[in-house]
Predict the 3D structure of the following.
Amino acid sequence: MLYLLILIIGGIASYFGPWWIIAPVALALCWWKAKTPKEAYLVSAAATVSLWIGYATFLNATADVSLVDKIAEMFTGGVGFLSKIPKIGFVFTIMTIIATAIGGFAGMSGVQMRKYFK
């Protein structure tokens, strides 16, 4: 239930707001619904990764230019051994690491703040 709430509300908020709006959404919903910090971290991280990967896949499929190639070029900067890695896998891996950290820590913070204010 918490996963779906973060996914739906976070998706709507991300459509109208900045890329980081998922963090306050995860924090607020985990404050309200999550029982343990571990549950909050895992569910928030999974919902954030699902949302970002889904949106990135949509953008990659519908864009006229290859956004993945441009983003991968920014990260690799012409480094020889990094250019041999498939670009879509490289970009999605970086995105997954960032989304896991943002969503997971925001959700865990919600549970910890609820405990603090009790």
The helical segments are 2-16, 22-33, 37-62, 67-76, 87-117.
